[in-house]
Design brief:
mainly alpha, 58% helix
Length: 127
């Protein structure tokens, strides 16, 4: 009936020469690299940012509370397991940060101690 009417949706032609975000893997590679599904998985560093991990942990804890109050203990437990994972990651990042700060303090202290020792030896050698 309405054959003369223009369709609202027109499919676009496929463009095979576009660049992927993480780099495309050519099928004709000489090394015959197999894509196992995880090759393009990229978190953009979200699991290394302590603030992002903490925020995600708190989000899952709140979701667990909401699920528990709605009477869904299975979903609440699922969210608590996710929150526990992010809590362990948060603790790991916190420990790494503290270790890095301790190392930098020790390095700074040793550098200042060496500077004081050099000043003492220079003043003694000049006398």
């Amino acid at each position: 009936m309405n054959n003369n009417r223009r369709r609202n949706f027109r499919p676009r032609q496929q463009k095979n020469n576009y660049r992927r975000r993480n780099g495309s893997i050519n099928v004709s590679n000489s090394n015959n690299f197999k894509n196992n599904g995880n090759i393009n998985f990229n978190r953009n560093g979200s699991m290394n940012n302590i603030h992002s991990v903490e925020k995600t942990m708190l989000k899952f804890q709140q979701l667990a509370k909401d699920a528990q109050s709605n009477g869904d203990p299975v979903l609440a437990q699922n969210y608590l397991q996710h929150a526990d994972h992010y809590l362990r990651r948060f603790n790991e990042l916190s420990e790494r940060k503290e270790t890095f700060q301790d190392k930098s303090k020790n390095l700074e202290k040793s550098l200042t101690d060496e500077g004081v020792d050099k000043e003492i030896t220079q003043s003694q050698s000049s006398n």
